[in-house]
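Issue 218. Parser rejects a valid record. Input:
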Amino acid sequence: MLFLLKDVLKTSGSARLPCDDPFFVQIEGHVKHPGVYPLCVRPTLAALIEAAGIVTTDCPALASGDNPLLKSGQKVVFHNDGRKMAISKGEMSAFYKITVGLPISLNHESEEGLTALPGVGPRLAEAIVQERSKRGGFRSCTTRYGPI
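Output the parser choked on:
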């Protein structure tokens, strides 16, 4: 992870990103440079293609003008069937999100993803998922000190 960030972390002697609130996007698939990218502006698919080094330029999603802005914490996978490029989007894994400081959702994360949280092992993750199913999801988080 730090290897991927090395060029971004170049500032005069300090290890700081060049912006205060970066967008983190994971790029995988048929690209030259897969990984998690910290970007200072909200990225478009075209910007990701340029950053990751797309292996082929035949991408119907971009040709059709489908070039939406992505949100922080998304994963974009570029698939190539030998003739044209396809793009699928999803959520970055909980392990990556926690590594870069992004929140994860207790209502949507898998058991495996919940184990990325410090102090949560497989049994506690299973119990969280079971309780979530029983309640139909969590609506608020309250401690004896008040809402979190």
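Fixed in the parser; the record now loads. Confidence is low (pLDDT under 50) at residues 1-14.
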